[in-house]
Structure formats: structure tokens, C-alpha cells
Specification:
The protein is α/β, with parallel strands linked by helices. A hairpin with a 2-residue loop joins strand 3 and strand 4. Helix 4 packs antiparallel against helix 10 and helix 8 packs across helix 10. Bound molecules: adenosine-5'-diphosphate and magnesium ion (MG). The site of adenosine-5'-diphosphate (ADP) has 11 residues, from strand 4 and helix 18.
């Protein structure tokens, strides 16, 4: 525990102290220029990593935000005589505002469309900076003077220390933020936006906040950039820089502050590497060695396919040979970036730092921080006294898809404290009903009431906040998060610290409480010893149990389980029944969609049977099993699963 803290914090401090000390040891303006650029790019890439790494969006606008911040700072100094701090604050705010403005419409988009939206924004901002000559002097360029910092004029080393100080502050604030509920929410919405909303976290607001933050850091870096070069031209913030920035993030390693720093050093050094043949040859040789080491390790451990290992080696080999033949490496710039990007994306998807981190963790035997003792279940999931009465009421609920009446006038009541079975052949509308209740789909007609009050319609997020929690028939876990984090994301009423406190690292107490609470829920479903495993690495059965634990983190009044036993082996089905009983004992009402009739018989007091979107029977399990309509419905289905209601199997 202490060793880990010492090593990690120690490495951060040592790197910072080393960087800060270099200007004292080497009196060289060229080196100082590189270091300053490194600090500025560091801030820029930490921002870019929030969108590319955490939010998982291809963001092509970060160079544009650098430009907007740079011009904002420069123009504030030129026109309004701002001091350094005020001008930097202005650059940050301009980044935040434009980032938010772009995020609102663009973030409703996914994948390639989002990338195109950010690309359009870049084009728009570059053209505006270029053509609005009255303000920016256009292509002629804008001379910027370096304003005083709190009344003092800064010389080159002092300005570098200011950049480094800001990098350190951004580093600390972002480390605190990204290791808090905010960081988890960013990653959760990357892996499953639907589940993020269904867990009451709010996909959209977190996406906008993350993007605005990234853009704000881009603007801040722009302000420093302006005062470093003291001359701005619109074309500096164009397409070329954007590609290099993406290369920096991917090469350094996504989701890592160290990765951003390594990426920043590389892209600060790249132009110089390319202009010096000897250096470039050494660089290519190192690249080839890394490709060989990473590829070899992957092949030995069988984590990579031969192509994945060989392609980067080939690419780096070409680079190595090229560096020996080609005279004018600078002319080959784009080809060289392309080869590097290709090698990294294929051979080192977790980047240099991801690769190094695994190696260092083993070298120093760094253990993950110890987990706290689980909280008591009574505090995490207080026992509800079942006071009876109608909990959920559906009145004539309808949902059509074109001509398909998936749910066709369903009226049913779930009493508080019961386990209500919902069965029916495949395609009878069970999942659609759940999707309408939970807010994923808007109903075509009908009413839904929870404790007599109308349930919000068409919003997973709002329904989640009313006390209804659900799992998904097709699992919707946050695959890249640990089992513990999956549950922690969803925890209700735990994260109360306002953003400034989180940034300052003053929200640790609630993090600790959250961890203990999440552990208690993991233990409830038998996953206590898997807390650290990534969700995607769990067995299929454990993934189903994890979804249940995650839904319980909402402290639900009503829990809807959509075929939790689907695909489970027999021992896991038994385990599942135990879990459902334990949940029910805590006074939580449950709607259970299930195919196995024996499970339904054992657990459910009341059963509703759907067929073709309509209710065809309701009653106890014994009653519906004997109902001729039910038998007929199941007989009509070819892929009737074993153990379903039908006494005879269809052919
Ligand atoms: P169940 O969960 O009972 O197996 P579903 O609710 O998944 O059934 O499906 C009911 C019917 O609605 C099926 O005919 C299915 O094809 C249709 N359906 C479900 N979801 C959609 C959708 N998103 N778009 C179009 N049709 C859908
Ligand atoms: Mg279904």
C-alpha cells in the first residue's frame, strides 16, 4: 500500500523536479523551447485523452481549440491589456464555451458522425481565424507580446516554470477527477450509454461535461502556446497538428496521465528527430526494438495473433531501412507518422505507457490498493417493510414497431413485495414491455403508474431515478471497468461532493464508503473475490450476476430482471435462484422474465403470460401452467425451450 503510493507519487515528483531542474543545469534556449512545448502539449494531450481515451470519441477538434485559446489570449492582451493570468483564464473559458457549444449538438451523434462534426468545427474555426482579418490579421499572422505575470515580466526559464506549474496542477486535478465517479461515468458511457442512463448516471450531461473540459484544457494550452511563440498563424492549428496530437495520445497510451506526458514529449521532439538523420536512425532502431519486444511478448503469451505481432515489426523495419536510405527525412514526414500510427494501433493498442505500466508493476511488485471491508448489507440495501398495495400499474400499455404490435394493450398490476413472473414465447413482447417501463422506448399508448404516480416516459435516466432498476437480456455491462467499478458507477445517494472538492482531491471519504458499499453488493451475488476483474473477463454467468449487483446499487423499490437465467448452466441457475430469494428478502419487489418454468414455479407467487403482445393468462404458476391458452401458445412456437409451460413439445 505505502510502497505503491511512494513509487507512484515519487515517480511523479521526480519527473516534475527533473523537468524543473533542467534549465538550471543546461543553459540552452533550444532545450528550454522544447521543454516549454512539452509542458504545453502535456496539458493539451491530457485534455484530448479525456475525449479519446475516456469518452471513447474520435475528437478532431483539439487543434482548433488550441488555436481558439491562443487567439483569445493574444487578442485579450493586445486589445484589453490583460495580464498573463487573466489572459490564460480567458483562453480556458473560451475553450470551455466553444467546447460546450459544439458538444450539445455533436454529442447526440456517435462514432464517425461525431468525428465529422468535430472535423467541421475545425474547418469552421480555421477559416474564421483566417478570414476575419479585422480581428486576427488573417494569414499575415498576429504578433503577441508576453504580458506580465502578477506585475512581473517573465523571462524564458520563468515562463517555462509557469507552464510546468500549470501542467502539475492540471495533472493533479485530472487525476482526482478521473479516479472519481466522474471518471467512472466517462468510461461507463463509452462502454454502454444505455446502461449508463439506466443506472441513473446521465450519459448526455457527462459527455458534454467531459468534452467541455477537454476543450477548456485545449484553450488553456492555447494561451500558453501564444505567449510561448508570441506569433500566431491560423494554419498552425490545422490538420497536420491534429494528426500529430492523435498520434501523441495513442502512442503515449490512452487513459493515462503519464501516457499524455510521454506522448507530449514525443510530439515535441518529432520535428527535431526528423531534421537530424543520426537521431532519426536511433529513434527508428528503438521503435523496431519495442515492436519486437511487444510482439514477442504477445506471441509467447498467446495474447496476439502472428499478424498483430509481425505487422508492426515490418512497419518499424521499413522505417529503420528508410532512415538509412532516405536523405531528406522531413519530406517523408507524413509517411513516417503513418507508419508509426499504424504500428501503434495494431501492435501496441494500450500505448507505450500501458505497455510499460504492466512491465513496471511486475518489476516492482506493485500491488493494487487494498480493498476496504465490505459495508453491512443493512446500510447498503436497507430492508424495506413490504406495506403491500399496488406498486406498478400498467393500463392498456402499447408499443408498436411499424406494423408489429409488440405490446398490444397490456394491463397488469405488480403488488409491493411480490416476485411477479412474466412469461411467454419468444417474441411475445416481454422485453419490449420492460424497455417501455424502464424508459428505453416511448409507449405508443397507455399509462404506467408507480405507487399511483405517472412514471416518466421515454427516459431511462428519469425512470432510474424513481426507484426502478433493471438488467438487460443482452448484457450491457461496462466491459472495460472492473466488477467493483461497475457497481460503484450505479451507487445511489453516495456521491455528494461538488466538482471543486473532487478536483482538489477532497472526496476520498465518499469514494471509500462507495467502495465498501459496492463490495457488499458484490458479495451478495457471490462476486466478492472478483472485485478487481474487468467485467469483460468474467464468465458469462458471473456477468449476469454482476448486472444484478449493479442494478441493486440503485437501491431499487422495483427490480426488473429480463431473462437472468438465459444461457446459464444448471449450477448457475441454482445460484441465481438463491440470489433472487435473498434480494426478495430485503423487501424489494421483482418482475422476473424467465423461460424455465421450474424457476418461475419456485419463485413467483403471481405469473402473467404474454403472447403476441397481449396477456393471455394470469394467476399462480400452477393455474397458468394448466391454462389451455397458454399450452396452445407454447405449442405454436417451434423453438420452445425445454421446461417451458407446455406439457408437450412442439416439433
Ligand atoms: P420477447 O422479449 O418476449 O422475446 P420482444 O419484446 O423482444 O419479445 O419482441 C416482441 C416483438 O417486437 C418481436 O416481434 C420483435 O421482433 C419486435 N421488436 C422488438 N424490438 C424491436 C425493435 N427495436 N424494432 C422493431 N421490432 C422490434
Ligand atoms: Mg426478450
Amino acid at each position: 500500500m505505502w510502497k505503491r503510493l511512494l513509487l507512484i507519487r515519487g515517480a511523479e515528483l521526480a519527473a516534475l523536479a527533473l523537468l524543473a531542474a533542467i534549465p538550471l543545469m543546461v543553459d540552452n534556449s533550444y532545450v528550454l523551447g522544447l521543454l516549454t512545448l512539452l509542458a504545453i502539449y502535456g496539458i493539451l494531450l491530457i485534455g484530448l485523452d479525456v475525449t479519446v481515451g475516456y469518452l471513447g470519441q474520435v475528437n478532431l477538434a483539439q487543434a482548433a481549440f488550441l488555436g481558439l485559446g491562443a487567439y483569445a489570449a493574444g487578442l485579450c492582451v493586445a486589445n484589453f491589456d490583460f495580464g498573463m493570468l487573466a489572459a490564460l483564464a480567458a483562453a480556458l473559458v473560451v475553450g470551455l464555451i466553444f467546447g460546450t457549444l459544439l458538444a450539445f449538438p455533436a454529442l447526440r451523434l456517435e462514432g464517425p458522425q461525431f468525428a465529422l462534426a468535430t472535423l467541421s468545427f475545425s474547418a469552421l474555426s480555421a477559416t474564421t481565424l483566417n478570414e476575419w482579418e479585422g480581428l486576427t490579421l488573417g494569414a499575415q499572422g498576429l504578433q503577441v507580446s508576453r504580458p506580465p505575470f502578477l506585475g512581473m515580466a517573465l523571462d524564458a526559464p520563468e515562463f517555462f516554470w509557469l507552464c510546468l506549474l500549470l501542467l502539475a496542477l492540471v495533472w493533479m486535478a485530472m487525476r482526482n477527477l478521473l479516479s472519481s465517479q466522474w471518471g467512472r461515468a466517462f468510461e461507463a458511457l463509452r462502454d454502454s450509454p444505455i446502461a449508463t442512463d439506466a443506472m441513473g448516471v446521465g450519459t448526455y450531461r457527462h459527455k458534454v461535461a467531459g468534452f467541455a473540459l477537454a476543450s477548456g484544457l485545449g484553450g488553456l494550452a492555447g494561451g500558453l502556446y501564444a505567449f510561448n511563440f508570441q506569433y500566431l498563424q491560423p494554419q498552425s492549428f490545422g490538420w497536420d497538428l491534429m494528426v500529430i496530437l492523435l498520434l501523441g495520445v495513442v502512442l503515449g497510451g490512452r487513459k493515462s496521465l503519464w501516457g499524455a506526458l510521454v506522448g507530449a514529449s514525443l510530439i515535441a521532439l518529432l520535428p527535431n528527430l526528423l531534421s537530424n538523420r543520426g537521431l532519426f536512425q536511433i529513434f527508428s532502431a528503438i521503435g523496431l526494438l519495442i515492436a519486437l519486444a511487444a510482439g514477442g511478448q504477445g506471441l509467447l503469451k498467446k495474447t496476439t495473433r502472428p499478424f498483430q505481432a509481425l505487422a508492426p515489426v515490418a512497419a518499424m523495419g521499413i522505417l529503420m531501412v528508410g532512415s538509412l536510405i532516405v536523405e531528406n527525412t522531413e519530406d517523408w514526414r507524413k509517411a513516417i507518422f503513418a507508419l508509426m500510427l499504424f504500428s501503434v494501433v495494431v501492435g501496441l493498442p494500450e500505448g507505450l505507457m500501458g505497455f510499460a505500466a504492466r512491465f513496471l508493476t511486475r518489476l516492482f511488485h506493485i500491488e493494487p490498493p487494498r480493498l476496504p471491508a465490505p459495508a453491512s448489507l443493512d446500510t447498503v440495501l436497507p430492508k424495506r417493510t413490504a406495506n403491500g398495495g399496488a406498486l406498478l400499474e400498467l393500463r392498456g400499455l402499447e408499443r408498436y414497431f411499424g406494423g408489429v404490435k409488440a405490446v398490444d394493450g397490456v394491463s397488469m398490476t405488480v403488488q409491493a413485495g411480490e416476485i411477479h413472473g412474466l412469461i411467454g414465447p419468444n417474441g411475445s413482447g416481454k422485453s419490449t414491455a420492460v424497455n417501455v417501463i424502464s424508459g428505453l422506448y416511448v409507449p405508443t399508448g397507455g399509462d404506467m403508474l408507480l405507487r399511483g404516480k405517472l412514471l416518466p416516459v421515454g427516459s431511462l435516466f428519469k425512470v432510474a431515478r424513481t426507484g426502478v432498476a433493471r438488467t438487460f437480456q443482452n448484457l450491457q455491462l461496462f466491459g472495460e471497468l472492473s466488477a467493483l467499478d461497475n457497481v460503484m458507477v450505479a451507487l445511489k445517494d453516495v456521491y455528494r461532493s461538488p466538482l471543486p472538492l473532487v478536483l482538489l482531491g477532497l472526496a476520498r471519504a465518499e469514494e471509500k464508503r462507495a467502495r465498501a458499499a459496492a463490495l457488499a453488493l458484490l458479495e451478495l451475488v457471490g462476486l466478492g473475490d472478483q472485485a478487481r476483474s474487468l467485467a469483460k473477463d468474467l464468465t458469462y454467468g458471473d456477468q449476469r450476476f454482476l448486472e444484478i449487483a449493479r442494478a441493486l446499487a440503485r437501491k431499487p423499490e422495483l427490480l426488473i430482471l429480463d431473462e437472468p437465467a438465459a444461457g446459464l448452466a444448471h449450477p448457475d441457475v441454482n445460484k441465481l435462484m438463491g440470489i433472487i430469494k435473498r434480494i426478495h428478502e430485503r423487501g424489494i419487489s421483482i418482475i422476473l422474465i424467465e423461460h424455465h418454468m421450474d424457476v418461475i414455479s419456485e419463485l413467483c407467487g403471481v405469473v402473467t403470460v404474454l403472447d403476441g403482445g397481449k396477456i393471455i393468462a394470469a394467476g399462480t404458476a400452477e393455474q397458468v401452467k394448466r391454462d389451455p391458452k397458454v399450452i396452445e401458445a407454447y405449442l405454436g412456437v417451434a423453438d420452445d425451450p425445454a421446461g417451458a409451460a407446455a406439457p408437450a413439445q412442439a416439433g
